[in-house]
Amino acid sequence: MTVPPTDPSGAPVRVALVDDQQLVRAGFRMVIDSQPDLEVALEAGDGAQALRLLADHRVDVVLMDVRMPHLDGLTATARLTAGADAPRVIVLTTFDLDEYVLEAIRSGASGFLLKDAPPEEMLTAIRTVHRGDAVIAPSSTRRLLEHLVTTLPADQPAPQHDALAALTEREREVLGLMARGRSNTEIAADLYVAEATVKTHVGRVLAKLGARDRVQAVVIAYETGLVRPGS
User: Fold this and answer.
1) Rounded distance, CA 28 to CA 48, Å?
2) Between the CA atoms of 31, 33, 35 and 38, what dihedral angle is there, to the nearest 10 degrees?
């Protein structure tokens, strides 16, 4: 079945692969280039090379490994997302790097993906992030996020976020459901409202929190104690 382009212009979504393992990049390229709506625009073997190439080449989504020589993926993500009109970044990780991935999300990444995820999950993540959403819905991502939060020092107090006070009761409820990995469709069913209404609530939550996307909003929900791991 042909997948329609996710870019409104009809052009394929341009993807950058940043990983120090050439075989990993080759495998990702094979999967991505097999899709009519996606294309690999460039590859880089470390964060420093990625920043140099991305300064001269526009891409929509970056798949960024964490552990790389010269410049790691966390630093590269922070520098990349600090720029104007920055591409979306999906951090590639394994469970043993969880605490670092949370820092990447704080630095502006739009989601994270396990390196051994099925190809279909990777393709979905790229399309989801390009649409302006974030990779947060799958249950595996929720479990990973909960694990990330529990790796924070036990004596570290939950940071305060003044914007939480600006949320209405319904908006806090929607944020709580987002943090539990519920999609807009599932939230609509949970609250017995139209999906369009949920999208409006989500948009207001992101605006009031100053969050770039759902991932950053969900991190705020966990860090402020609005939602607790395992709840």
Assistant:
1) 20
2) 120
Higher pLDDT: 49 or 101? It is 49
Q: Give the span between the Cα atoms of 134 and 216, in whole angstroms.
A: 9
Query: What are the Cα distances from residue 5, in Å, to 40, 64, 94, 111?
Result: 14, 23, 30, 21
Q: How many angstroms separate the CA atoms of 189 and 107, rounded?
A: 32
Please give the Cα distance from 184 to 83 (Å, whole number).
29
For 65, phi then psi, to 5°, come to: -70, 160
Q: Strand 88-93 relative to strand 61-65: parallel, antiparallel, unpaired?
A: parallel
Rg (CA), the chain: 17
Rounded distance between C-alpha atoms, residue 224 and residue 162, angstroms? 10
Structure tokens at 185: 């469709």
CB neighbourhood size of 26 (10 A)? 12
**DSSP calls for the chain:** -PPPPSSTTSPPEEEEEE-S-HHHHHHHHHHHHTSTTEEEEEEESSHHHHHHHHTTS--SEEEEESS-SSS-HHHHHHHHHTSTTPPEEEEEE-GGGHHHHHHHHHTT--EEEETT--HHHHHHHHHHHHTT--B--SHHHHHHHHHHHHTS-TTSPPPP-GGGGGS-HHHHHHHHHHHTT--HHHHHHHHTS-HHHHHHHHHHHHHHHT-SSHHHHHHHHHHTTSS-TT-
Read off the pLDDT of residues 58-87 as tens digits, 9 standing for 90 and up: 999 999 998 899 999 889 998 998 877 889
